[in-house]
Design goal:
Number of strands: 9
Distance between the termini: 69 Å
Strand content: 15-25%
Number of helices: 3
Structural class: alpha+beta
Radius of gyration: 27 Å
Number of domains: 2
Largest sheet: 4 strands, antiparallel
Length: about 160
């Protein structure tokens, strides 16, 4: 890599000279200081100017302060799909929301059907095993995880005491 002490701000070099592999090393870079924190780094030179004015850290902070949630053009109403395949709803005021403010949609639908919050330990089951089908007719409430497991064991044909 380069020796930072020997490089002046505004110095221009090819990517291959500073250890950048992208673009075949022919892209030009300029030594530039972040306009917010002053951190010096190599930035791609675009049309005679640094492509970005802020370092990654400051740009991330600035982006976080710009457009969020309801005001963002890609906002879809606070409904996201978890990696496990369950729909989650953004509901910060719900007593059982996770640390990010989301509640499982099938739990919320069941709570609406019951007219109360679910008790800790109650399990909501999808009759068709499709975690995205949260139609009230497809949901069933079990009083405990043990009762839910017994249901699945019987469904698979295992004998349960």
């Amino acid at each position: 890599m380069d020796k930072v002490k020997d490089i002046a701000l505004g110095e221009i070099r090819r990517g291959c000279d500073i250890g950048r592999k992208g673009g075949g090393g022919t892209s030009r870079y300029i030594r530039h200081a972040c306009e917010h924190c002053g951190k010096e780094r190599w930035v791609i030179l675009a049309q005679g100017r640094p492509k970005t004015a802020l370092c990654h850290t400051c740009a991330g902070k600035a982006h976080g302060l710009q457009i969020k949630r309801e005001n963002h053009p890609k906002w879809i109403g606070g409904r996201v799909i978890s990696p496990q395949g369950y729909a989650r709803l953004l509901m910060h005021k719900h007593p059982y929301c996770d640390v990010n403010g989301y509640v499982l949609e099938h739990h919320f639908v069941m709570e609406e059907m019951l007219g109360r919050y679910l008790d800790p330990g109650e399990v909501v089951h999808h009759e068709d095993d499709n975690p995205l089908n949260n139609d009230p007719s497809n949901l069933r409430l079990f009083p405990s995880q043990a009762a839910h497991r017994r249901f699945h064991s019987r469904k698979r044909g295992f004998r349960v005491n």
